[in-house]
Amino acid sequence: MRQIKDQLADFPAQLFILYAVLYAVQAVYGGYLNLYLSDIGFSKTQIGLIVSLSTAVLLLFQPLWGMISDRSRSKNTMLKVLYAASAVAALLFYTTTVYWQLLGT
After folding, report:
1. What is the pLDDT, as a whole number, of residue 89?
2. CB within 8 A of 78, min separation 6: which ones?
């Protein structure tokens, strides 16, 4: 039990808050994404492809970003840039109803 307390003491509060906000937003975003895509006229097959392709891209690029981050001098800056890029991509997702553009975001 003491070991867990020591590990939690080393975990920065700001990082905890960042992850809490990130996953809360993803829970809301992910919960309604399929309904939104269906509402703007996409078929179930298209919705499935959009959602699965985004997961595949995550699986492919996370190791790459990890290697870049390991070589980066400022990991905090790298993290901020990636979170900002993710926020921009998430906002751009709702600005289009064109299928191939949604595949790119």
Report:
1. 81
2. 65, 68, 69, 72
The one-letter code for the residue type at 16 is F
Question: For tokens 């400022």, what's the residue?
Answer: 74
d(CA 22, CA 42): 27
**pLDDT (tens digit per residue) in 24-61:** 888 887 788 889 889 999 999 999 998 888 888 888 88
Closest CA to 52 of 44, 62, 63: 44
**Residues with Cβ < 8 Å from 53, sequence gap 6 or more?**
103
Whole-number Å distance between alpha carbons of 94 and 29: 11
Burial of 65 (0-12, 13-18, 19+ CB in 10 A): middle
**Would you state the structure tokens that stand for residue 50, as one six-digit string?**
């959009």
Q: Whole-angstrom Cα distance, residue 45 to residue 64?
A: 29
